[in-house]
Fold these 3 entries.
Entry 1:
Amino acid sequence: MPEYKLIYFNARGRAELARWIFAYSGIPYTDERFENDEWPEKKKSIEGGKVPVLRVDGHTLPQSLAIGRFLSKKAGLVPEDDLQAAACDALVDTIYELMTEMYKFTFPEKSEEEIKKPKAEYFTTHLEPFMTRLNKRLGEKKWFVSDKITWGDLAIGMFFGEMKGLYSEKLEKFPSTTCPYQQS
Ligand SMILES: N[C@@H](CCC(=O)N[C@@H](CS)C(=O)NCC(=O)O)C(=O)O
């Protein structure tokens, strides 16, 4: 078994999906976290200067979604069917887009007044239409893409678990999407 080390801030962010995949699969790894004030020094040792990165026996893999897909293959969380595998990719890409938008007003360096409009628009224009489609497609099914759990399901759990902690009132209308998942 290779030695895995995941390097990221001491936060959920773009490393959390990889942590969920490790936790689900039981693959051992080192979860190396650092605080914000350590980042300028740490950045010097990271090729490309961005995190998360995954070190695999000395090789370095950047980009959170490449890391997620790589680990999911190892963990049997990518469907064998190419179309289903692509559906998983599309789902995870969409969730990451929503997550990126949400972070812009959730941990902003702007005033309440400045984020008021983008925040309101996010829920009505981005999140609710997506949740409506997702909730309808999930219905009574257990897993979103295939008849087995995939990394798309873990991404749903990861993102909506975080959102539930932050904006639970926005999710009450969508029980199929959020009920089976808990925040890690
Ligand atoms: N597309 C990349 C984005 C990586 C990224 O922007 N990481 C941020 C943290 S979420 C970072 O390293 N910020 C510190 C910096 O740019 O100095 C991914 O998904 O991994």
Entry 2:
Amino acid sequence: MEDFLVPYFHSMQALTFGGIESIIYGAAPDPKILEPNDAIVQISLSGICGSDLHVYHGREAGLDKGTVMGHEFTGTVMETGAKVKKFHKGSRVLSPFTTSCGECFYCRIGLTCRCEKGNLFGWMQSGHGLHGAQAQFIRVPMADSTLIALSSDLNEEKGLLLGDIFSTGYFCAENAGAKPGGTSVVIGCGPVGLMTIIAAKHLGAENLYAIDYQDERLQMAKEFGASPLNPSIIDVKAVIRDATTGRGADAIMEVVGSSEALRLAIDLLRPGGIISSVGVHTENKFSFSPGEAYDKNLIYKIGRCPAHYYAEKLLREEIIQRYPAEKIITHHFQLNDGARAYEVFDKKLDNCIKAVLHP
Ligand SMILES: [Zn+2]
Ligand SMILES: [Zn+2]
């Protein structure tokens, strides 16, 4: 008889937002087909992303308690609405971190992250939005134009990285105009910074420096082809000055998303150079003035990566296939150990770079 006390709609397991620095493992409502273009995907792998930490620490106001966390995943389609054509039960898929319609102005110009109908996974406010991927199942609206087929020759890890951080790294390097010749700098060697290094090298960057305070991250930056610089032991401004006969770097890829990182970026940049920012900025002021920007003839590109556009491109051009990007995944956790996974990832315990969850 006790079974009747358990609400029948709470049946899958998930990590939900329980308030600041509280991640709860437990039952959550099973996702259901609500619209004819929805699909339900059974998650095979989900990631914890740096931007999940903004939510975790309460830097983003107003996320509903009970929201299923996470926006990086791969999985298998379990059920489709009547209008879904490209995918069927059993299709192996990866997903960008936002949904996109494929038809609006922004989707047509490749800015899929600003789709007029798009939503971010793992983002529920006042009852609106989408639940996330750190769960056993997820509802994916506009499935045909959101999901991307994950071919059998691509592993889950590469698929997961493609849906967010590998695409974001490539977008950052491309926006920075990475190409042979010149001197460029990546500020921040977390997961996105390391992906940015791979992408910048792929695009031909030669004198590429990477800045971080953590030696393990710098070691991986070096493996991926950058010259590591730790500001706690070396004067990075002097190194870049010396490397460029006093001019400053041609391009800075800023992936941290802090005013300090942006300040360092402008200090390291030569006049006429490019700053490309993909770190999630939530400040309400720039750490450089319009006057400094004018005097530097600054070219500044910033914003969220249109991951659907880039994931398709990087698959089609067989770019993700060529690089061991998944080396950054240092930690694997079971979903029921999710609270611990957040703590390890957040505090960089045990030299954690990237953590993934297995449902
Ligand atoms: Zn992310
Ligand atoms: Zn759209």
Entry 3:
Amino acid sequence: MSPLLIGTCAIACGGAGLLLPRVAYRFAVPFGEPLRAACAGCGVPLRPGVRGLLSVRLTCAACAARLGPPSWLTGVAAGLAGGLLAAALGPAAVLPLYLAVAVLGVLLAAIDLACRRLPDTLVLPALAVTPVLFAIVAAGTGQWGDWLRALLACLVSGVVFVGMALLPGGGYGMGDAKVSALLSWYFGWLGWHAVLLGALLPWLLNAPLLLALLASGRVGWKSQLPFGPALLGGGLLAVCVAAW
Ligand SMILES: [Zn+2]
């Protein structure tokens, strides 16, 4: 375990995490609506394009309403995830891919907490590009066995989780299923034990959270709660435990 590697990865992911609140704010819209283009408080248009998306300005210039979650929170979450992944995986060729999906995960968790959605516009491109990026790594390292296992894990999990999302009455949605399939690729690369941990840990994390919310009276039995944060947090834990 190299402190230099852990520190570098934590700082890189933490820095990327600082840029996420504005992106999360733009994506946190009801299903089917385009990206948010104006401040929800006063209606003043937000700066368009990539510069507007990656702005570090935290409040609306006109009405001072906060735009998105606090950046220290997304920065700390992404930095922590980056450090943990570097400690667990070491200087592996695939480490940058795990770091990238961790930053994406923080963004997805922030959007899910804001509007109970895991947008296809973020998840589907990640699902499409992941096999290609891992194939580039496998071409260099010869880990084609790991690549094939990751593909199988992704496909099997995809079928199982989409089936679960189609069951009526559950709080588990189609967005959750697609993110589960994406994460299963990363679990599958590490081994079937990681796939199993990745499937179980989110539910174990979600149960005490739900019970605490129910006990505090803040939610009822019928409340729809976002599952994304538990899914992504449990996924991070699964990668760390499996790699160690
Ligand atoms: Zn405003």
